[in-house]
Structure formats: structure tokens, C-alpha cells
Amino acid sequence: MKLLDALVEQQINEAASRGDFRNLPGAGKPFEFDDDLLVPEEVRVANRILKNAGFVPPAVEQLRALRGLQDELDKVTDPVARCRIQVKMLALDMALESLRGCCCVPHEYRRRIAERLSERTQSRVEPEPNQP
Predict the structure, then answer these.
(1) HSE-up of 63 (CA within 13 Å, CB side)?
(2) Each residue's pLDDT tens digit, 83-130
(3) Which is nearest to 79 in space by CA: 123, 116, 109, 114?
(4) Three-class SS of residue 130?
(5) What is the spatial distance between Cα 72 and Cα 82, in angstroms, rounded to a whole number?
(6) 113 with 90: CB under 8 angstroms?
(7) What's the Rg (C-alpha) of the chain?
(8) What span, in angstroms and rounded, lies between the C-alpha atoms of 113 and 132?
(9) Which helix H or strand E contains 44, and what residues bound it?
(10) What integer pLDDT is reported at residue 36 of this predicted model?
(11) With contact defined as beta carbons under 8 Å apart, do 47 and 57 qualify?
(12) Nearest residue to 83 via CA among 68, 69, 63
């Protein structure tokens, strides 16, 4: 590993002496750290590579979706539509908890909450008028 480190350092020094690092974006500005300070360094590197390649972890996608649903819920006033959004939010929240590997609410209780919300949604939907 030390040989690899030495080769990398040599390449960096050669690039610096050629001036390859001049006029880079963000030069002279403080480095902005990501919110991953609690993530182990080896995982952080892998996450950054995946992020630069356009991939995001499933938890991040689900958090974004959850945030979008919360924004949608804030705008909706119809009780049926609100209930449907809440069911979707509950499902996403349960999926996030399973990714975390922990669960604050027992699975059976969460399932019953989802069923109850679904029943409320179905009972509030007005039947469509019969067409002749």
C-alpha cells in the first residue's frame, strides 16, 4: 500500500509542477464538507464515487420522496387526498425504517395503521354516479 501511496503522491506532485491544479473551480474557497461526518471514511469514499456517477442510496431517494409527499400534503385540503398521501408517507417511512435495520413501532402495529388509513380512504371516496 505504501508503494501505491508513493506513486499517487508522485503523480500529484508532477501535476502540480505542470500547473494542472491552477484555476480549478472553488480554488481559494474553503472546502464544504458533506453531512457524512459520522459515516466511516471507507464508506464515505464509496458513497462519493457513487454520487459522482449519479447514483444515490435508496434511503436518500425515499427521503426525497417523503419530503415531496410532505410538501404535497401541506397544499392539499381534500380529506380523501390527504389520507391517500398519508398512506404513501407511512409506507415510505416503514421502508426507511427497514433500511435502517431498526423499527421503533412494531411491524404488526404499523401494518394495522396502514390498513386503517386505507379503509378510511376507501370509505371517504364518493361513489361515481351511475351513467345511463
Answers:
(1) 8
(2) 888 888 888 887 777 766 655 556 676 677 777 777 766 665 555 555
(3) 123
(4) coil
(5) 9
(6) yes
(7) 25
(8) 39
(9) helix 41-52
(10) 64
(11) yes
(12) 69
CA distance 130 to 116: 28
Other Cβ atoms closer than 10 A to 84: 21
Alpha carbon distance 54, 45 (integer Å): 14
Q: Which three cell numbers stand for residue 29?
A: 474557497
Closest CA to 39 of 55, 54, 57: 57
pTM over 0.85: no
Residue entry with cell 404499523 = 110
DSSP 70: H
What value does the mean pLDDT take over residues 2-13? 86
Cα distance between residue 44 and residue 47, in whole Å: 5
Summarised one tens digit per residue, pLDDT across range 37-81 is 667 777 778 877 888 888 877 777 888 888 999 999 899 888 888
